[in-house]
């Protein structure tokens, strides 16, 4: 089988086969060690893995950031502050532009950087919205009650809040989910997290109007702001940076994330291997190119 693998690599790479073969052998050994260690800690249960802890935290905070629900009330909030209803149209275009920026930069600046940046911008924007709407009462407050400065704060903060979600939690959460799980559990883990996402979306959409009616928009934004502070802590301590890393390197990084042992750093691309992630089958050392 080893010789068959070498012949396959000669067909794909043409030259430097022995060098690349040894790299792949080392990578297979790394992933086998990581899987063996993970199985000893949490046998046959992806829900007890560090990858699952990182991913489920992102999915939960993605919904409890409030953005997917608050955006449903953006027109109401803009009109309450005396701002034009067309602001919501501009916001939709703005969301598309922010997501495009993420797509173009995520492989250069990193997943964790975008998540952290988006999270801190959301904290700032939610704090400003909380102050602006602190004394807001839909029965007594009129658009004239907001000063021109307050209206500008609300407009800018809403755009920052929603834009920051689009560069961080919106797209990057699912990119992390697609990268951190081993191949044997990726399908089950992703399916579970998608179902959880829909359930949490329903829950938050249901409770936001109840919370708003009970404590007002100012306190509701303050609550979301506090949740985002916990989200920043989760991103910093639980979520690995996966930029430029192979699947086995990600598993090694998660395994050593407690501080015991060396963290595997992304290896430099030599130009011999494709930039797309390699899927390595450990039974016969064969390789196939493709995104995973």
List the main descriptive attributes of the protein structure presented here.
single chain; 292 residues; mainly alpha; two-stranded antiparallel ribbon; 70% helix; elongated; disordered C terminus
Protein described:
With 292 residues, the protein is mainly alpha-helical. The protein has helices at residues 2-13, 17-41, 50-64, 67-70, 74-80, 87-109, 111-132, 148-167, 169-180, 183-238, 247-255; strands at 278-280, 287-289. Strands 1-2 form a two-stranded antiparallel sheet. α6 (87-109) crosses α8 and α7 (111-132) packs across α10 (183-238). It is elongated.
Write the layout of secondary structure elements.
Layout: H1 2-13, H2 17-41, H3 50-64, H4 67-70, H5 74-80, H6 87-109, H7 111-132, H8 148-167, H9 169-180, H10 183-238, H11 247-255, E1 278-280, E2 287-289
Antiparallel strand pairs: 1-2
Helix pairs in contact: 1-2, 2-11, 3-9, 3-10, 6-7, 6-8, 7-8, 7-9, 7-10, 8-9
Could you write a compact summary of the structure shown?
With 292 residues, this protein is mostly helical. 70% of the residues lie in helices and 2% in strands. It is elongated and about 80 Å long.
């Amino acid at each position: 089988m080893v010789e068959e693998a070498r012949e396959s690599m000669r067909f794909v790479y043409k030259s430097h086969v022995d060098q690349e073969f040894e790299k792949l052998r080392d990578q297979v050994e790394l992933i086998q060690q990581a899987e063996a260690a993970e199985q000893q800690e949490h046998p046959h249960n992806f829900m007890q893995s560090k990858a699952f802890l990182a991913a489920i935290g992102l999915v939960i905070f993605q919904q409890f950031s409030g953005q997917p629900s608050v955006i449903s009330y953006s027109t109401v909030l803009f009109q309450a502050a005396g701002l034009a209803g067309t602001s919501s149209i501009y916001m939709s275009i703005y969301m598309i532009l922010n997501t495009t920026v993420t797509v173009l930069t995520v492989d250069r600046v990193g997943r964790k950087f975008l998540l952290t940046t988006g999270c801190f911008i959301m904290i700032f924007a939610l704090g400003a919205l909380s102050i602006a709407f602190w004394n807001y009462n839909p029965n007594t407050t009129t658009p004239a009650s907001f000063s021109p400065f307050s209206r500008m704060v609300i407009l800018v903060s809403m755009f920052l809040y929603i834009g920051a979600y689009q560069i961080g939690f919106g797209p990057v959460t699912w990119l992390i989910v697609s990268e951190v799980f081993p191949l044997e559990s990726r399908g089950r883990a992703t399916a579970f997290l998608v179902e959880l996402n829909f359930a949490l979306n329903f829950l938050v959409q249901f409770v936001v109007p109840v919370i708003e009616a009970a404590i007002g928009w100012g306190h509701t934004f303050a609550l979301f702001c506090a949740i985002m502070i916990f989200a920043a802590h989760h991103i910093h301590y639980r979520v690995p940076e996966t930029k430029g890393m192979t699947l086995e390197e990600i598993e090694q990084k998660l395994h050593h994330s407690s501080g015991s042992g060396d963290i595997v750093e992304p290896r430099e691309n030599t130009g011999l291997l494709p930039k797309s992630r390699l899927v390595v089958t450990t039974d016969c050392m064969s390789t196939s190119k493709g995104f995973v």
